[in-house]
Amino acid sequence: MRKNARKRKNEQAVVREPAGKAAKAAKNAKAAKADRTVRAVVRENLAAVRLLIGTAIRVDRRRGLLVLIVSPLLNVVAALQAIGLQWMVDGAVDHDRAQTVRGALLLLVVTVLVHQATAVATDVRLVLQHRVGLEFDRRLMNLCSKPPHIGHYQDPEFLDTAEVVRQRRGEFGGALAAFVENANLLARFVAALVLLITASPLLALLPLTVLPLAAANRWQARLVTAAERAGAEADRRRMALFSLATDPAPAREVRLYRLADEIAARHRDAFAAASGPREAARAKGAIAVAAGWLLFGSALIGGLYVVSRSVIHGSGSAGQAVLVLLLSTRLVGATTGLGWLLGWLRRSLDTVALYLRLVDYPHSGGTHGNAGADARGGADGAGTMLPPRGDLVLEGVSFTYPGRSAPALGPVDLRLPRGATVAVVGDNGAGKSTLVALLAGLQPVSAGRIAFGGQDLSELPADQWRARVTACFQDFCRFELLAREAVGLGDLGALDDPAAVRAALESAGAAEVVAGLSAGLDTQLGRTMPDGTDLSAGQWQKLALARARMRTAPALVLLDEPAASLDPGSEAELLRRYLRGNGPASDTITVIVSHRFSTVRDADLIVVLDGGRIVEQGTHAELFAQGGRYADMYTLHAAAYSTGPVVRSAPAEDGRKVAPGVHTELAVDPGEVALHGTNGQGEPVGDRAVGQAPGGQ
Ligand SMILES: Nc1ncnc2c1ncn2[C@@H]1O[C@H](COP(=O)(O)OP(=O)(O)OP(=O)(O)O)[C@@H](O)[C@H]1O
């Protein structure tokens, strides 16, 4: 029995020993991690302070130095008031007039100086604070808009951090104020403490009791920041819902579908999801902070009691007793102030640290918001020149969005010949817009390479390629500016050249849009602007097309659903300009993404995408003859536009496949049907060619 018990005990020990070692190792790892975390936090805070101070001095050197140095100094000088008072009281008690006058003078000079100089320093600080805030605004704008690629807008991690920073955007100027005010109070605290220590060295131990308080504050800040980051997605949802309820664009559907209550409810839920954990974190941290305060407060009051007692009952003078009382009041005031201000500083430094995280984000270029000034698409392209013309070649190109496992596009091999018009077709989500973004150099390829005239685009500064590209995107921008600016932006160099703007409008078929505006090119556009004129969706799109015409000899024109908002006449005009020899310079490659087969059939090359892969490519005739994916889509499209019962009347003469039930004539040229409609029997109305505008223009 006993033997068995001993054996069991030994076995347990054997089992326990590794477990003990593992626990120790885990403990060590945890300690190391905590140490790393503490070091990381300290590093982060120091970097934030450095950035704040550096920014203040960079935006306004004189004011920066005044606020950062003179302001805390004044708080040190203010402690001399207590000495002046001590001299006065001792002089009065000892009937020493000279001592009394010296004390009174010191008190007077210090009080006037501190009062006046503090008023000036506060004004200066307010101006500086404003400038620092503007500087961070500018940097944030650069940080988001200057990186060569737009990948950061697709990464939820970047978006979450950016959301928190955007929400706290107004706090950057305040961060400087928080830093200065804390430095002021700290200076006041230290000055009072040093003078008190001369009265009682025991008080030298007081700063030690601040440490638990500081740790508690830091812990609370970490909890709150973590909760804020966790709630950032819900916050983004909340902001999007707010925009949905307040923006003019969704106003019609919000009313039609009576969405107001639903949006408000979701907004409430999103707020609760974001703020609940934040409040909980704050409350949890507050308990630790309160305990820290209790400890520090007890030490402070206990220390002051000991000092006062020894001065009053000991050998101290009446003046010394006054000094101790006055300094004690300052010390307690500074401590209470610090308690409040430290929270402000802590949050401000967190905000600056978050901003620094955005700066360090891989897509940002890491140059404090000046990213992109010399941003490169890939390797250093200094000295490399883009050939004037050439084919655009994609070799094994693929692209995967952040957070996705499967590529949205690719691998793709494709040659876009110089001067060709290339149509890209495919179902929703096939990868067409992704291809457009890659061709525009807005996204770096995940694999493979894109070369123009044999030059790998990733080896060039992104701007060099983009200066040769022009585009009308699917979600084109409605620039709420003067009409001439909204178009002229397409070539900043020609922004103030009305002749260039008019030429672009003319060549995009958008001249009549501006002709109809009250002040022509000088009309303010957009309903959110005072006296702004709003345009129809099609008119906005025409201006976007005109913008894409500002660059007169681009290497590549990208048109992603350029006719989505256009009427048939305008669409036909667009085709005439881009597909029928009236487009940009003859060496220009034009890529048109469209679901409208009337738009694509005249392209030199048609590329069919499916699930991110090229499944077919060729001319309309070739692809139609193949009877594959393109032929299917084309015939479906034609059938969709046919209003009557469509009957296949005869087999196609050239033996092409025709979908059952589709009239041969539609299969031959449904573009005409799409543009002009049918007469109810499946017959196209009128005999105009596709490129003709209504009314035979
Ligand atoms: N920002 C993004 N983040 C993650 N996935 C994305 C993002 N944008 C697009 N995708 C995905 O990539 C795929 C291709 O999208 P893309 O916009 O290129 O398609 P498309 O062919 O242009 O579609 P459509 O005809 O509807 O405009 C889709 O599956 C889409 O869900």
From TrEMBL:
It is a multi-pass membrane protein. It is found in: Cell membrane. The chain crosses the membrane at residues 65-84, 104-128, 189-215, 285-307, 319-345. Residues 189-343 form the ABC transmembrane type-1 domain. SMART domains: AAA. InterPro entries: AAA+_ATPase, ABC1_TM_dom, ABC1_TM_sf, ABC_transporter-like_ATP-bd, P-loop_NTPase, Type_1_exporter. One of its GO terms (molecular function) is ATPase-coupled lipid transmembrane transporter activity. Residues 392-636 form the ABC transporter domain. Its main location: membrane. This is Putative Iron-sulfur clusters transporter ATM1.
